[in-house]
Amino acid sequence: MKKKTWQVVISGAGGQGLVLAGNVLGEAAAIHENLHAVQTQSYGVASRGGFSKAEVIVGEEEIAYPKVNKPDVILTLTEEAFNIALGRKEKETFILYDSSVIAYGGQDERIIGYPFEDLARELGSTAVVNMLGLGVIVHKTGVVSKESIINVLDEKYSRYPLNVTAFKKGIEISE
After folding, report:
1. What's the pLDDT tens digit per position in 118-133?
2. Domain range spanning residue 80?
3. β-strands 94-98, 73-76: how paired?
């Protein structure tokens, strides 16, 4: 899906690698695709476990305001993040949530669950829920190419090859 600008929110709990996922997405856009990108983050007073989010805006034109005001896609990895996302959802917003930890019984076709935590456990580490989610975001939106993300992971995080495996698994489960 081609757009001039994408506004992405990656949310959950501190310690889930949300900022890392935002950084990888922003670097893939800016360095490998020559797009404009800004990334901001916020987190609660608890460094682990409290609400945390990364916001990334990617666009073909210069970005004047660095905060997401109309999210195109929101990844939620905790119940708290999911409830906040529901309050921010616009008509066209996709919410991608972790169905391993969040129960949603609604019928909105733009709210889609994936068992991120269960899949991360199967891969060997719950630390890669962020990369599973990033794989789904990239596949669903086309905000950047999967090759650009893999390049950033290979260049900066090659000592953690499970990140690439999880990213590719995220693409696979969203096909």
Report:
1. 999 999 999 999 999 9
2. 5-173
3. parallel
